[in-house]
Amino acid sequence: MSDYKIGTRCVQGGYTPGNGEPRQIPIVQSTTFRYATSEDMGKLFDLEASGYFYTRLQNPTNDYVAAKITEMEGGTAGMLTSSGQAANFFALFNICESGDHIVASSSIYGGTFNLISVTMAKMGIAATFVSPDASEEELNAAFQENTKVVFGETIANPALTVLDIEKFAKVAHAHGVPLIVDNTFPTPVNCRPFEWGADIVTHSTTKYMDGHGAAVGGAIIDSGRFDWMAHAEKYPGLCTPDESYHGITYAEKFGKEGAFITKCTSQLMRDLGSIQAPQNAYLLNLGLESLHVRMPKHVENGQAVAEFLYNHPKVAYVNYPGLPTDKYYELAQKYMPNGGCGVVSFGLKGGREAASVFMRELKLGAIETHVADARTCCLNPATSTHRQMNDEQLREAGVPAELIRISLGIEDKEDLIADIANALDAIE
Ligand SMILES: *Cc1c(COP(=O)(O)O)cnc(C)c1O
Question: How far does the centroid of ligand 1 lie from the alpha carbon of residue 202, in Å?
Fold first, then answer.
């Protein structure tokens, strides 16, 4: 399937039915799986054979969908998780333990920032945050003896900064560690980070991949290229025997292509749960079947609305990497020549009051914390999620009072622009 173009992989990847088998992926609604002999099941527990025994670790429906996303990204192995948060936590925790250190872009999703800076810090894993615009020298300076991974987002939610994947990968590899990229916003339809040197990709499939606001989920995909054994002293979890699996050494037994995901499934899923429900994996797959049709429409609407806002007298500024005036335009052209995503952020000259009026008057754009949905949605952090902060605190947090994030859906752009124009007209 990897020889096919991206749209074909979206539609037919991951699952090829045999003669007389269901055309659509079956939902395997079963917690457990039957075996004829204890020895047969024992082989699974020894990781001598691959198969299913309990849905907390693996389920066939999930594996069809994970295989599809793996083909879309051009990776060698993948898995689904219950949420994007679980995907990022598992991807990091699979190679970091107490006493280790992470270098992360500061321009990342708020949930991931909290995960790394608060929750993982409590587990004894430290982090240094770097600007997404950092030079190679500045990046180098962030590394420590115990650094195990570099993390960033292709297009950051909500700041809409674009990661220089090649630069981050080069510096990570010079220090003998992998680069993990959260590719939620562009999706593999618009950017495939493995083609630029990233080693592992994560997703909140809750966003464009599902695309219909139906199911929370996540995914982790491995490029199969990072040579763990070449840096064995850094990754004892992959390169020394796992006593909880009868002394298996993942990097030896499953190679570069399979070690990361096998360990993540057989250790972290086993011990921490966080599997995606097979029903949700089925819904996610329906979304994936049209992802390559929807993404160009999100981009078209994002571009049209960004241009409209840019030229509007009541708008102070617009952030959208598809605008030639945007700070990230050149990087976006390099990594996402077909466009990035449909999320635009902008500031109103009238500040908090103007934002409040604008939000109230929008008819098609619904007020939601969600983004990347078929339906247009909109958020003014100052008057909703961040309303406990004053204007100065908001500015320091990078979400000034006048900032509005709008996620353009796949409706007709003329209607969306008319709706936005009407809401802007209502501002005094
Ligand atoms: C939403 C989001 C997440 C978290 O995903 P959930 O599915 O909500 O847990 C992680 N990264 C990015 C870029 C996101 O937009």
Answer: 10
173-190 burial, b at 16+ Cβ within 10 Å, e below that, comes to bebbbbbbbbbbbbbbbb
CA-nearest residue, atom 7 of ligand 1: 84
Contact in structure between 278 and 321 (CB atoms under 8 Å): no
154 lines ligand 1 (CB under 6 A): no
Q: Find out whether 295 and 190 touch, Cβ atoms under 8 Å.
A: yes
Cβ–ligand 1 distance for 192 under 6 Å, the answer: no
| Cα→Cα distances 77→63, 120, 237, 254, 264, Å | 10, 25, 18, 11, 11
218: Cβ below 6 Å to ligand 1? yes
**Any ligand 1 atom below 6 A from CB of 109:** yes
* Ligand 1 contact, 85 CB (< 6 A): yes
CA-only gyration radius of the chain, Å: 22
pLDDT in tens, 19-66: 999 999 999 999 999 999 999 998 888 888 889 999 999 999 999 999
pLDDT surpasses 70 at 2: no
Q: Where is 168: in which H helix or E strand?
A: helix 165-174
**Any ligand 1 atom below 6 A from CB of 153:** yes
Of the residues 108, 153, 204, which should be mutated to test ligand 1's pocket, given the most ligand atoms within 8 Å of the CB?
A: 204
Asked if 172 and 225 touch (Cβ cutoff 8 Å), the reply is no
- Cβ atoms of 85 and 34 within 8 Å: the answer is no
Residues 6+ apart with CB under 8 A from 306: 318, 320, 322, 323, 344, 346
For the question of whether the overall pTM of this predicted structure is more than 0.70, the answer is: yes
Q: What is the pLDDT of residue 390?
A: 86
Sheet holding 403-407, edge to edge: 315-319, 343-348, 403-407, 377-379, 366-367
Q: Which atom of ligand 1 is nearest to the CA of 156?
A: 13
Residue 336: closest CA among 321, 320, 353? 321
